[in-house]
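Researcher: Go.
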Amino acid sequence: MLPNKIITIEIKCLNSKQADVIVKLPSMYRDRESVLRNKLTRELVRGKIEFNLWYDITEVERKATINHMVLKDYISQFQEMKMWTDVPDNDVLLPIIMRLPEVLKVERHEIDDEEWVAIMKSLEDAVTSTQEFREQEGKVLEEDIRLRINTIIILSKEIEKHLRTRLDLIKTRLEGNLNEFIGKDKIDNNRFEQEIIYYLEKLDITEEEVRLANHCSYFLETIDKEDIAGKKLGFIAQEIGREINTMGSKANNGDIQKLVVQMKDELEKIKEQLLNVL
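Model: Structure:
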């Protein structure tokens, strides 16, 4: 607040991948717009940022004068209108004319150093409040993301319980198909075992499990060590998704597929949340 005016600053911020700054100012501050825009971009980094500044001159200092030339012109035009339509008398007309544009002029002052310092101080306070709110929101997001990553780790370990059963079911199904279409007495058991081993190696998901565990660990390390990690976490999430998708394509088992679907669901929610992380 200055001796002759009250300045109000407002910052609105929505999520966006880049910094998209909208600055709304009274005309007398337009020449300082680039300074304000650069400050907001530098401090807030990214987001759809809307900055509003307005002021109100205190009643004591408000100086309004009548623009006589404009007033006379309005009155003249209304007098001409009397020739072809009903126009109220002057005592009724004058209050209406006084509300028309440019009839009253409010004296406007140039920005002095004291006023600009006050504006920048208010901007600093508004940016600090915005950052504090972001940090509070970030802590909630972090807890949610950590919980979902840990859920993916738990679900991936659950897959281990079904691997032995999966292998037995695959072997039984293949053997049954061969017996049905070829005949048990015509099957070379040694060759059959070799083919089973080759086939099961194709379906082995051990490597994917190891890589998935490593990616999840790296994801959590990145959260702990880096201040601005949004993009990096997004890249790691993509790698996590690749391993989950490969495990799903190799699953060949209903129980494992259910776990894969749950992991995909958790990962999609993580990706949504990462859009809100710097």
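Model: The chain has three domains: 1-61, 64-106, 134-274.
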